[in-house]
Amino acid sequence: MGTCDHMDVYLVRHGITNWNKEKRYLGHSDIGVIKSELSQLNNLQKVLSRLNFDHVFTSDLLRCQETLAYLSIPSQVSIDCRLREINFGDWEGKTYDELKNQIAYRNWLENWEVYSIPNGESADVFQSRIDSFFYELFQQAIETSPGNKKKILVMTHGGVIRYLVSKYVSSRSFWDLTISHGHGIRLTFEHQKGEWVCSSLLAVPFQEKEK
């Protein structure tokens, strides 16, 4: 029995909602997916069902739980509110056209890590809760996992995936990455010299991307 020194983390964005279709900011509002659109996830389901995940984690919001239920992944599932999208505060439910003339909004688009969303979540708080989740994930892998390889599925939101890629893949910035609903990426981590390093990035379910 050894510890885990290699981990594949599959980060998948939930299925589409009405607000997503209308291009409205959707953070902590608990809106479900459009049921008639779920069949578009069939290709993703085929890919993920073959992977034999050690564990599945999901945001507690309805759109993530409904997507995960449709995919029917045979694995233990843990619900974690730290995997939520950022809280958009006063901008929740608004569109770009409704916000584009606000100075606070333009500043946030220019530098989201410095300027906060009015009555919403700051970058520091958003990043800290996601970092907390991943710190625990890595610690558990080191301390408890048999063998030396692990597969984890995380059902979450677009902003969470953007942040994680920008954090662990030095060539990508927060706004560089676009993840469609029902798609995701795989980050491969290796434990090297006491820290977890991302060694590759791959698109899911289309297996043809690079780092």
Features:
disordered C terminus; fructose-2,6-bisphosphate 2-phosphatase activity; alpha/beta; Rossmann fold; 6 strands; 6-stranded mixed beta sheet; globular; 32% helix; 211 residues
Mean pLDDT: 90
Spatial sequence of strands, sheet with the most strands = 3-2-4-1-5-6
Give me the number of helical elements: 7
Query: How many structural domains in the coordinates?
Result: 1
Distance between the termini: 31 Å
Weakly predicted, low-confidence segments: 206-211
Radius of gyration: 17 Å
Please give the CATH class: Alpha Beta
CATH architecture: 3-Layer(aba) Sandwich
Beta-strand proportion? 15-25%
Structural class: alpha/beta
- CATH superfamily, by name, is Phosphoglycerate mutase-like
Largest sheet: 6 strands, mixed
Shape: globular
CATH fold field value: Rossmann fold
Order of helices and strands: EHHEHEHHHEHEE
Write down how many β-strands occur, each being a DSSP E stretch of 2 or more residues: 6
Helix content: 25-40%
